[in-house]
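Q: Could you fold this chain for me?
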Amino acid sequence: MNVIRAAAVQLSPVLYSREGTVERVVGKIEQLARQDVQFATFPETVIPYYPYFSFVQRPFEIQREHLKLVDQAVTIPSPAVDAISAAARAAEMVVSVGVNERDGGSLYNTQLLFGADGTLIQRRRKTTPTYHERMVWGQGDGSGLRAVDSAVGRIGQLACWEHYNPLARYAMIADGEQIHSGMFPGAFGGDLFARQTEISVRNHALESGAFVVNATAWLDADQQAQIMADTGCPIGPISGGFFTAIITPQGECLGEPRRSGEGEVIADLDFSLINTRKIVMDASGHYSRPELLSLMVDRTPSAHLHDRFEHLADAVGDSHIASGPLPDLEARTA
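A: Sure. Below is the predicted structure, expressed as structure tokens.
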């Protein structure tokens, strides 16, 4: 029987401080290691913090707050990435964490997955920023629409409302994810957002036949007051929206979800439950109809500068049909 211990972490960032938030993430990894956790998911763009300002300010008002975020965003490689890598290696823990990534003059909503040896085994960007987020983040590409092997199993990652894109989710399902790392902002959208989050991640567990480890961030009263002072917003839009939980392939919560406050949900994931679910309903296997329905995934990494003919050859080689189980192609590697 394959059983691993996982944690979904509800964590507050240190507002306006990359180093401060990284220190909090590293400290939490060290704490979880003492509880024998082998896999941990942290919230969406928790490093340095989610861009709440973009939701509550008009476009021509956001420049000051936008520049703060640019200044504190994460570059790759960097000391911030090295610190998390070292913590994962010391803890022998697989770690999934959301960051605001700076690449040149642009920001991206990026999910980083570190192996138990500290190696960065996946760096993927949210494919389409949602609504107000488009003022802050650039678009990702399809290179991250894949699951990757790790010491604890095969892991897929999606951020927030990517879970409302059924084709993106199916790419993960067809690529054989066993653990799905979900991330949402937290302190956002009120109780309705929390209920919607719960529905979407529990549904993904049922459809994928995988465990979902889902994390949202937390803002305390002082942090809410700081954002309100800096943006002029009311408290409503930066409240609620918390659902940090671990979901079984049967769609059930393991332990009690966190709906307020900092902390974590820790549970043992019994991989035999994956087969228990999939013998009944395997969305990319016996329950699929590949002769009727299929999905083409272009996993070509985007580039700002490339050789025209080389790019065309790569594009042909990296466009795959996902219709039931994916063939054993290079899409199986990070």
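A (continued): The radius of gyration is 19 Å.
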